[in-house]
Amino acid sequence: MDKANSDDSSSSPSQNNMDIGDYDLSEWNLECLKQAAVEHRLARPRGLAWAILLQALPSPQADIVASLRSHRMFYDDIKMKLSMDPRAVIGDDPLSQSDESVWKQHFCDNELKAVITQDVVRTFPDELYFRDKDVQDTMVRVLFFWARSHSHVGYRQGMHEIVAPILFELFQDRRFAPKELSQILKYVLDDDYLEHDSYMLFNAVMRGLERFYTTGEIVPTPSGRLPTSKTVHNPNEVIRYLDQVKEEFLVPLDHEVASHLASCNITMELFGIRWLRLLFGREFTRGEIPHLWGFIFADGPSLPHIHFIIVAMLISLRNICE
Asked: Among residues 37, 102, 22, which one has the least CA distance to residue 295?
């Protein structure tokens, strides 16, 4: 009898190996989501799963509604704080060059929005969803408010290609949702908070990517362009990271590839900066990106193992060329 019970337990799947159904949070927990992400079978709502993996939200067993409400209120607060109408400020000169001038900040904000818009309107030009003016405006607002609230980084070209897949996945989560939903999922998938949730997820992803976007000894002004002061970031942080990947991982695993790159004067940053800043978004098809990102997010918000993807891609290119 004991042996029979043992056989039954060994043949039945563990809690962590159970399939996760779309829009069914009953089996969701962090370990289960991690395994599903690694195996490319992450269920919808995928945006919610990403938020949990990136530790922006707790697992559904905790008070996920309260946490999500807090994030949404935080975004509303940022928008209100950074959207001041300069005409409402008495005594402020529109021609003032003072750093305290609301009018000066207003003009800088308009310049920053123009810079962001130039990139946003070119995002995934072959996809109808991103040609929609409302979608583009949402992307501009998310990127603008993030850049303004992270002044040590500001806006950098490439960030629009991070926020775009996030926004699209959140849209798809709502689009494919069944009519019958739990009260929790009704709140999670509220259309009125698509922009709020995009900001939350973008901010969570940037916790791991931010270091690859810093440009060294200068930080941007509110307009996103001119230097104002020194930053604590190493001026060559992304280059140092790529050199470390080469020396500590690529060379031991495939010395021939590393030597070939050196003999051709091909530095890691020539391709690696784009790979990192876009999170490999241009190296894979759009349909593959959600699965790849889920795999990456399974390691947590610091994205600690993306160097393995860089090395694997280089070795795979070697195999193709043979």
From this structure: 37
Residue type, 21: G
User: Pseudo-torsion of CA 160, 166, 170, 173, nearest 10°?
Assistant: 140
> Scanning the structure block, which residue is given the tokens 């609301």?
102
CA distance 299 to 34: 8
Q: Which two tokens stand for residue 95?
A: 């021609």
In 3D space, the residue among 254, 188, 229, 221 whose CA is nearest the CA of residue 49 turns out to be 188
pLDDT in tens, 216-266: 654 555 544 434 444 444 557 899 999 999 999 999 999 999 998 999 899
Contacts of 41 (CB under 8 A, 6+ apart): 19, 20
Instruction: Tell which phi-psi region holds residue 300, choosing left (phi > 0), alpha (psi between -120 and 50) or beta.
Output: left
- Name the residue among 51, 54, 18, 48 with its Cα closest to residue 36: 18
Whether a cis peptide bond, with omega within 30° of 0, leads into 45 is yes
Pair of tokens at residue 75:
């975004």
Predicted confidence (pLDDT) at residue 75 exceeds the cutoff of 90: yes
Whole-model pTM: value is 0.86
Lookup result for tokens 């900001």: 199
Please give the angle made by the CA atoms of 124, 207 and 35, to the nearest 5 degrees. 80
Q: Confidence band (pLDDT; 50, 70, 90) for 86?
A: low
